[in-house]
Design brief:
Length: 274
């Protein structure tokens, strides 16, 4: 079963009038992972798509999505898939990519029908593309690691970059994930915005009771989402995206927009956030 939900782009002036329910309806990605289903959210932020596929030992196929108006979903798009479950296989264009937990698969523009198999829980991201780069499985051994933060600021963390110019070529999709060291709770502190790129987070690797307080909004008009395991946050270009966790967590970040420069961020110090 395939379902697609559309999320419209929200103006920051509208976002600041929203109560918790409206913020969650517009910016929280819930229920992406349901047994036997592919569930996608088609956003109007750079036409970025996020979603989940859970084949539970069977087979699920993603061929065509009405929202793109194309013969196949990836006719004019590229895709990044992260397996956040047990070992599973993604088949595309006659190739079988076996993915362990934490592996990332890039599928280039023009790739055909995609089939998800096995016991993987596949997080799907996709953005429009202008050129066909080769599909590639990027394992943990292939990613680039960046260490940031320190225990004194409770923000010691490792950033693993997979779909990233220093690892491989893509059109506009950049993707990786960040894990906190034990005792550190804060991600993306100091905060930043990048008006050139939208971003989406998927929080995972959390205990059922754990939560992340995800901060969003313009730096002088912040709001929050309380986020559980396997829930995502859509971050508009005008919004900060930082979080503090109760319990351990990892989050997948993915971006699309005008450039693929991960370091192109406008930092906002805690003293400047309201
Ligand atoms: O902990 C961090 O810092 C991050 O992981 C930052 C994200 O990767 C990000 O926001 C990139 O723009
Ligand atoms: Zn960012």
């Amino acid at each position: 079963m395939l379902s697609v939900e559309t999320r419209h782009a929200i103006h920051p002036a509208q976002a600041k009038t929203m109560d918790s329910a409206a913020l969650r309806a517009n910016f929280l990605a819930q229920d992406l992972f349901r047994d036997g289903e592919i569930r996608l959210i088609y956003t109007h932020y750079d036409r970025f798509v996020m979603g989940g596929a859970v084949p539970v030992g069977g087979q699920l196929s993603l061929a065509k999505v009405a929202e793109t108006g194309t013969e196949t979903f990836l006719e004019r798009r590229e895709m990044g898939i992260v397996n956040i479950g047990e070992t599973g296989t993604v088949r595309c264009d006659g190739e079988a990519h076996e993915m362990g937990r934490g592996d990332v698969l890039y599928l280039g523009m023009g790739s055909g029908e995609i089939t998800f198999e096995g016991h993987g829980r596949f997080y799907i991201t996709s953005a429009p593309a202008h050129a066909a780069f080769p599909s590639r499985l990027i394992t943990l051994a292939d990613c680039k690691e960046v260490k940031l933060g320190d225990p004194a600021n409770s923000n010691q963390r490792t950033i693993k970059q997979f779909i990233h110019p220093q690892v491989m070529e893509s059109c506009q999709l950049i993707l990786g994930y960040t894990s906190l060291e034990e005792g550190s709770v804060w991600n993306t502190i100091p905060s930043h915005i990048h008006d050139r790129r939208m971003e989406a987070y998927l929080y995972w690797g959390m205990e059922e009771e754990a939560r992340v307080l995800h901060l969003m909004g313009e730096p002088q008009e912040t709001r929050h989402l309380f986020v559980a395991n396997e829930q995502g946050a859509i971050s508009p270009p005008w919004s900060i995206h930082s979080g503090a966790g109760i319990g351990k967590y990892t989050f997948i970040w993915a971006m699309a927009g005008d450039n693929i420069d991960y370091t192109d961020m406008d930092f906002i110090q805690p003293k400047d956030i309201i």
